[in-house]
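Dear colleagues,

For the upcoming journal club I promised to circulate an example of a predicted protein-ligand complex. I picked one with glutamic acid because it came up in last month's discussion. The inputs are reproduced below in full, followed by the predicted structure.
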Amino acid sequence: MNAYIERVLEDVKKRDAHEPEFLQTVEEVLKSLESMVDKHPEYEKAGLLERLVEPERVIEFRVPWVNDAGEVKVNRGFRVQFNGAIGPYKGGLRFASHVNLSVMKFLGFEQTFKNSLTSLPMGGGKGGSDFDPNGKSDGEIMRFCQSFMTELYRHIGPNVDVPAGDIGVGGREIGYLFGQYKRIRNAYENGVLTGKGPSFGGSPFRPEATGFGAVYYLCEVLKHEKDDIKGKTIAMSGFGNVAWGVAIKATQLGAKVVTLSGPDGYCYDPDGIATQEKWDYMLEMRSSGRNQAKDYADKFGVEFFPKQKPWGVKVDVCMPCAYQNEIGMPEAEQMLKNGLKYYIEVANMPTTNEALFYMMDKGLIVAPSKAVNAGGVSVSGLEMSQNSERLTWKPEEVDAMLLNIMVNIHAASEKAAEEAGLGYNLVAGANLAGFKKVADAMMAQGIV
Ligand code: GLU
């Protein structure tokens, strides 16, 4: 390995030893940059990689709120402003009990490369809280969002840092967060958040963007392999916003999505999650706050597999749409045994590094999440443009731009990997293509 990369990696491992998710992504990304770092000895002199792995700013704060029983609760809030070289910090807010600094830093680091890949001017950031919205009342969610924003507002702004949704944060939460921001700032700066409702500056197509974008990317992979999405079977995990978009677009293009899952297990639907009624029910499942995949099985009379993941089902394409590290070696081995050909990551970092490199070694076509799920943040970037113009574009215009962005991300990744002599390696290609623009900007802007 390149000696400079090795040294920086060793340093991060020492300094951030207690942050496993962050170390995992740094290792995966830095190792894939070898060819470019070899070619640019000036990076080392400029301390480029040392700066790249250190967030520009980490904000951690107390979020006190009162539940419906009148009890005081205290959660921890975060915003990691990772890299602002190519634009204002941009990235979602995650409300989930697993949120901690390591998870925030891993997501902020990944977001830096993802946002660069979109070709829109957005830096990398991420935030959230260890608040678990499941089972909370609407009033509790609102009070929590208001308290969260009462601290966050001073660190963000349409030209500074633009949060959006992620796990546990959807349109309802963004509405409450924006209401409180507007009230405190006494200014109508709706470009401060994306994923807003259509009546106050939200972009058409933002809810669909991540899932639709992922399927557009899958189509590019299939085209490269002289294959077609028509007739393909897809196993998918999760049942949230991203999975919903995947199920709709994959069905529209002639594929069949046969699974969805939750923390309680997975459902197998041999007819496919392929009707408006089923898609609408996924939205209901999400807003119910029950966080149960079994509800789908009960409603549509399909088989439910308690406490199991869907990766043993024999399909053409696997698309994990739930959480980080849901696929390790046992799942990877199972997929290979089933003769899987396409492994398309959708959730952020759903695969352990060991399983990821194993699948690539065994010849599976692996597409990385930071490229595949970039459609969400891309349409967020388009929402920022619309808010700056004080105009709203037509849904079909936004969809066409999304498709174009996803086609370009695939092409840029393919080209970067080929130039590095790595063949059709979309994982390294995405890292190389995303890194290039950030590195050029950081080199031009001096030691900051
Ligand atoms: N949370 C999404 C992501 O991981 C979207 C972020 C955004 O729209 O800013 O990319």
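Two points we might discuss: The CA atoms of residues 172 and 359 lie 38 Å apart. The chain is about 50% helix and 15% strand.

See you all on Thursday,
B. R.
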